[in-house]
Specification:
The complex is a heterotrimer of chains A (581), B (424) and C (140).
Chain A (H helix, E strand, L loop, with lengths): L8 E6 L11 H9 L4 E7 L5 H13 L4 E6 L2 H14 L7 E5 L1 H5 L6 H20 L7 E4 L3 E5 L3 H13 L2 E5 L22 H13 L4 E4 L2 E9 L2 E9 L5 E8 L1 E4 L3 E3 L15 E3 H7 L19 E8 L16 H15 L4 E6 L9 H9 L3 E4 L5 E4 L4 E7 L4 E7 L1 E6 L1 E3 L3 H8 L26 E3 L9 H19 L3 E4 L4 E3 L9 H5 L5 E5 L5 E5 L9 H5 L5 E3 L4 H10 L5
Parallel strand pairs in A: 1-2, 1-3, 3-4, 6-7, 6-12, 7-8, 12-23, 14-21, 15-16, 15-21, 16-17
Antiparallel strand pairs in A: 5-24, 9-10, 10-11, 13-22, 18-19, 19-20, 25-28, 26-27
Chain B lengths: L3 E4 L3 H12 L4 E4 L14 E2 L4 E2 H14 L3 E4 L2 E9 L2 E8 L14 H5 L3 E3 L8 E3 L1 E2 L11 E2 L5 H5 L4 H5 L12 E7 L1 E4 L3 E3 L16 E3 H8 L20 E8 L14 H15 L4 E6 L9 H12 L2 E4 L4 E4 L6 E7 L4 E7 L1 E6 L1 E3 L31 E3 L9 H21 L1
Parallel strand pairs in B: 1-2, 1-13, 2-5, 13-24, 15-22, 16-17, 16-22, 17-18
Antiparallel strand pairs in B: 3-4, 6-7, 7-12, 8-9, 10-11, 14-23, 19-20, 20-21
Helix pairs in contact in B: 1-2, 1-9, 6-7, 7-8
Chain C lengths: L7 E6 L3 H10 L8 E6 L7 H10 L3 E6 L10 H18 L7 E5 L5 H18 L11
Parallel strand pairs in C: 1-2, 1-3, 3-4
The chains are: A alpha/beta (581), B alpha/beta (424), C alpha/beta (140).
Chain lengths: 581, 424, 140
Amino acid sequence: MKVSEEIRIGVYICHCGLNIAGVVNVKEVVEYVKTLPNVVVAKDYVFMCSAPGQAMIKEDIKKHKLNRVVVAACSPSMHEPTFRGVLSDAGLNPYLFEMANIREHCSWVHPDDKEAATEKAKELVRMAVAKARLLEPLEKIKSAVRPAVLVIGGGVAGLRATLDLIERGFDVYLVEKRSVLGGNAVKLGELAYTTLTGKDVVNSLVEKIKDNPKAHIFLNSEVEKVDGSIGDFKVTVVRRLEEGKEEKIELNAGAIIVAIGYDPYEPAIGEYGYKTTDKVVTLFQLMDILSEDGPTKGELLIGGIRPKSLAFILCVGSLSTTPNAKPYCSRMCCSASLKTILKIKEKYPDIDVYVFYKDMRTYGKEEDLYWKAIENEVKFIRFDEAPSVKPRDKFVEVEAFDTTIQERIAIPVDAVVLANGMVPAADIEKIRVMLKIGCGADGFLKEAHLKLRPVEALTDGIFLAGVATGPKNIIESVASGSAAAAKAATIVTKEEIEVEPLIARVNEDVCSGCGVCAALCPYEAITIEVKEDGKRISKVNSMLCKGCGTCAAACPSGAMQQSGFKDNQVMAQVVAAFRGE
Amino acid sequence: MKPVLVVGGGIAGIQASLDLADQGVKVYLVEKTPSIGGRMAQLDKTFPTLDCSSCILTPKMVAVDRHENIELITYAEVKEITGEPGNFKVKVLKKPRYVDVDKCTGCGECVMKCPVKVPNEFNLGMDMRKAIYIPFPQAVPLKATIDPEHCLYFTKGVCRVCERFCPPKAINFNQKPEEVELNVAAIIIATGFSLDDARKKETYGYGVYSNVYTNLEFERLLSSTGPTKGEVVRRSDGKHPKKIAFIQCVCSRDELTNKYCSAICCMASTKEAILAKEHLPDVECTIFFMDVRAFGKGYQEFFERAEREFNIRYVRSKPAKIEEDPKTKNLIITYEDTTSTKYVREEFDMVILAVGVRPIPLEGVLKLDEYNFAEIKEPYIDPVATPKEGIFVIGMLSGPKDIPDSVTQASAAAMRASILAARG
Amino acid sequence: MAEFKPKIVVFACNWCTYAALDLAGTSRMKYPANFRVIKVMCSGRVDPQFVLEAFKQGADGVIVAGCHPGDCHYVNGNMKTLRRMTMLKKMLEEMGIEKERFRLEWISAAEATKWVQVANEMVEQVKALGPLKPRLEVRE
């Protein structure tokens, strides 16, 4: 870029339908922006991210020879990549673009003070324009891609992802902490509408994987360390051998799929009588009991006896029904409970079954389970307050206020089944910290976008499959395994990928080699080199630098700067918060 | 590397296309209507995040348009599929728009000049479009289309005003349907859904009482791009409602119509009730439900927030009937609150029916159940694969589901199809 | 006399605090319009000079906000922030800038409620203090 090049900025204010325009006086903002130095075009439009909105920018870049673009609209986390793409298409460097957030940070939070919101919008745009003036063109950094994928977790989701990727022709490192593959699915017994068991499903997937030379399975193994970034993750796996020994394995993968599953909710001792009597079991325990290779070889025996009556209590550990319970819905338990009941009724038609429920959530086609349960004379009792379970001498009494008949009832049964939900896996915290991905308020892994990016983590190159992101049933977990594989495939099918260039760079003329930066870098991306003339200079490894900017903040001479967040760029925003140039 | 066909340009079809294209696979995306976008383009906001639907959808639509590996074929239908996996032969009929898409700039002059008004499908008949039209402002591709069933030239041999005023001279009344044959390795079917006919529930008076709407119609009312520019007003008198009732499970969970649960309506009504309160802070919203299907991630929290912060009233009841006050056009709902055994008649200004979903299948290729949902061969092992190898279904077509599940299935099918494509 | 409308500059880290502010937006939470947010990738990018410049330009308050210790997207950028800002706080005090005018906050991406709380508190406190005086003059 020539030093004397005239800066020509195009500014676009989005209405976002009424989301912004309903609060911020967009026309007033446009008029104000026209007064700012270097602004040659200022326009507004109803949806800047739409095709006509994008076309408008492209046309203006050509027509008005724009060399900087500012869009005032939603959060950059929504559309910064979209608009960067627009600049690329128009032949302008995509990093000559800045956004002002006048929706999430303005119109949506100040709906009652339209004047203040409009003033704030003007200043936010002014700040973006001030930064845009100082933006420099940047080139993406290219990185060679390792054509292999790391899959953490060998449950059904991880297995499906592995199978898809090896069929697609890629090496997969499947790391499983247990000594067998299959995760929690192996203990689920017969699944709904089939005689297939969870174990059958697992075996079916494992059969197709185990002899394929592209599948590298590590049992009794855990991922200990992950370095590097998308295209080139450097992974350390620890495998437990016999006699307490350990083996460290170093692997290289282009993408990572996290499929660490869940733990069934474990009721507290005494919660609904759990562990105070052998007549109370959890749903997961019951499904195992009914499995042919379970503790009773598939015979329905609870506390040593064949129950003639059973009470199921739903939402155990979910929907805040008890102080220990999680606030969320565990999604699969209504269906899993009814499926199990129908299997029991098939084998033992004379058993009386009562279902105590708060809300029946057999969604979609699973509603059929509810119809069938009713046909099979299962009795449903609705509660608002959690039922109480009182073990008596020869039976267990379940008591609840039935909201449908508006009466308190107590039902004596031979055994009680607590339909327990799903909670995040015990090692989720360790794994997410190691991968630097986030968890949501529910404790499960957080996806990049709940609606449109359900299997992607915010960190590039890391994907999330199965119950790791939240409760789901087997069919849904398996689908998400394939989905995560598809995302991983978009990386490993490429020979090289491009990485964001918003990283640290050294001005060697100014650098004194003091080394403060190198000491601070969490990725050890900075080294101090000694040149031929003895001068010490800081050097940044652009593949390891993740662009935090900590070194730049510490640099005493200003030699270390972060592209896109240089001192002068940030300072310009600070100044512009208070005045125009 | 062989190409893959995706049938249906809703969010599921769009996502499948992008995932395949990003792997370097060529994709033909065939869409029946003049624009991609599907149902999501008709939503104002999505639950539970209250994202602006257009805002998260349109960039994906544009990405499809821009992607060098995706050939977008809109206003076209798949007529025949033969062959086998790795080598399907598909006959696609491109319907004539009577507009040259290479010349059309989407400027809209023709639309302004056209004298014919037709009920607008995008707004579910609540306002009018012209005989030459662009389905919605963010349509991809942004091109005009002439509807020959209503165009004066095609019905009566007169007019041709659009032709006169079109700046790039893009109107071409001589266009003919064009059949093309595609050769593809795999096919992903994502033809989506529509709502069932609420008139089947006669006791609710849909289609008879002016102020009874479906979820989707109300969604259009809430949208700033809708027939009333986002003003929530009643059909009968144009006034703001003060009390809105939502009735769940209309043509769902019902022996007389559809026995399945439509999965999305509890959350859709919760969302619409919240949005109604944002539009009209004093409005009272009541949702009559059987069970709250708040099963997904963030759904229970959304439902509790609706009760707590927005004072949405939830009544566990399936109302028996709705009557209309002939003077005020208000609706009187008769119901029994099943948690109190009270029998009530309550008056509302507006009633929204959460109508069940019906899949739109592709004729001929799929094994369908009695409701037209497509059969999956081995749901536990390959949840998107039909009994016909190489043909996959995603989204609502295999069962009612929300956007995250549809998008997940879309990526899953893209993965499965890419394996066939790579075999070449 | 016109009502005092404090202007408060916020340096928000991309992964946590900026996302929390976005979440406050998507959740339609309401808070005062006194804030001007500058996004950085990590709170560790915030040079104390930026804070001083903000006060010099006329800020009545400044917030530096990032991820909770242990949660930094870049491992421990926020720990460096903590050290720097602790020192900066001492410096600001000596310059006569009341301690309520400068805050270091840890706000995670899910904590929109916490942001609104902090925002309301800060505006109240700064309003009570009045406009920043004397004007900070730092030789160029």
